[in-house]
Amino acid sequence: MVRQVDDVETLKALSDSLRLSIMRALMADVRTSMTVKQLAHSLGQPPTRLYRHIKVLEAAGLIRVASTRLVFGIQESQYQVAQLALRLSRELLVEPGNASEVARAFAATLDDFRGRLINDILAGRLGPEPTAATGTEPPGPTMVMVDKVVSRERAVEFRARLDALMTEFNRPDSVDEADVPVNFLMMFWSPRDQ
Asked: What is the 3-state secondary structure (H, E, C) of the chain?
């Protein structure tokens, strides 16, 4: 399920790179749930740093408690994401009063993505394209940045194709098929003349 974000409070919850990391960790396998301790271990953070962020995400309905249990008399919750993907509503993005919150959410997303990309580059985890002979390695990286002026019809058609691609990309794979980690950031916008 893709959730459309159309309120500023949810946008604020998404405006922190650590909260985005928590969401990403939980979205890695939407069939599972994790405790704060498991999330902390996965993210290399102390559990005490995550509790406030978990509460913000839960209050925004971005994550939910999947189950609870008593551990030495203390209630321990298992969390899972409440959706497969997020899409920001057009109305939320274009409302002038939301500009600073939209900018913060995009900055957090870009910071998070940039940090993971740099870590993978420095750790040597970006490999070349597989050769036709082996074909066993995952696809190599690609990066495209385009500033171009096109016709209105072409811009609308291209956006529709990107939307279709994202719908396909967000379709869950079976457990047996899901074996290649993929990082994908797509942005498309057409600035208006002032």
From this structure: CEEEECCHHHHHHCCCHHHHHHHHHHHCCCCCCECHHHHHHHHCCCHHHHHHHHHHHHHCCCEEEEEEEEECCEEEEEEEECCCEEEECHHHHHCHHHHHHHHHHHHHHHHHHHHHHHHHHHCCCCCCCCCCCCCCCCCCCCCCCCCCCCCHHHHHHHHHHHHHHHHHHCCCCCCCCCCCCCCCCCCCCCCCCC
Fold classification of 2-126 is: Arc Repressor Mutant, subunit A (1.10.10)
Q: What is the pLDDT of residues 121-167, one digit of tens each?
A: 898 888 766 665 556 677 778 888 888 899 999 999 999 999 898 88
pTM to 2 decimals? 0.76
